[in-house]
What we know:
The chain has a single domain (12-142, 197-261), classed as Alpha/Beta hydrolase fold, catalytic domain (Rossmann fold). It has nine helices and eight strands. Helix 1 (47-52) links the parallel strand 3 and strand 4 (57-62). By secondary structure, it is an alpha/beta fold. The protein has an eight-stranded mixed beta sheet, with helices on both faces. This is Alpha/beta fold hydrolase.
Amino acid sequence: MSGGSAATAPGSTDAGDLWLRRYQPVADPALRLVCLPHAGGSASAFLPFTHLLPDWVEVLAVQYPGRQDRRLEPFVDTVDGLVTHIAGALGPWLDRPVALFGHSLGSLVAFETARRLAEQAPESRVAHLFVSGRVAPTTAHRTTAHLLSDDRLVAKLAELQGTDPRVLADQEVLRLALPAIRNDYRAAATYTWRPGAPLSCPITVLTGSADPHVPTDGALAWHRLTTGETAFRSFPGGHFYLTEHAEAVCRTIRTATGLAMRAPAPLKPSRRPV
């Protein structure tokens, strides 16, 4: 499903599809890592991954509408809506095993995308699910941040320490950024967990050791959502630990997917855009 723009965005996979960014194309990848950003985040947050992961991994970063080059497009304000678009956009890229990496809101979207792909394309190989900075969706985790005033929402962003203080001090930049942030918080707040068949792929749960939003019991609850193995990795820092520890996070990704990559083979002839 396309983003509706006729122009090709920097790093986009195709002129008619702005949902995915491929900053560093790989000719014959053994794995595609699909990265889903946090509330208010953009695809460029995962640009470092393209340089830190081995050359057999192709990174596809999701760009939600309403920000950066998609700033004039209407927001999608539900997790289900995002999943529908993302699963559709991924169709041509499932000729290789796919792993999903989501941070915060992106973890919910990644999990539900994995479930959607299992339903719609069971022949595709979802090799791994990485969930970062988020408790399992079976754990009550309601937020009303989207209802906060602008000043209180900015204070919350400062508390999370994931936004450059210079951005928070720039009223013009904030005026452009806050609608996307508020929209994404609304998507998280209105998400409802629906029981279903567990995933079969392994799950790796990544957290910041000082993240007050991801208590241990909430992180551990992810293991109930797959019949595969579940691993847990904690890094020093708060909610946005991965900004400081991107290299270690990528080592974790490489190690976790290493066994699956020993004998990579496409499932079918490639249908990827050229």
